[in-house]
Amino acid sequence: MKTIITRLRIERINRGWTQEYVADELGISKTSVHDIEKGKQLPSYKVLVKLENLFNLSHRELLAAVDEKPFSPTN
Fold it and tell me: What domains can be seen in the chain, in order of their start residue?
């Protein structure tokens, strides 16, 4: 799960989004976003789907290690 924690924080920061903005978009508390990013809380499946939509990432991309290349059918 460390992969998703790192991915979420990096994706959020790269977009210039605050934890509060992400929380509002996901319909969860800012504390929950903070706790997910720190690994204190795991996102529910429903929140994972919302994260995929918010960040415009596939399930596979969201769970991929940050230093891995994004999945493509040719790799």
Answer: 2-63 (1.10.260.40)
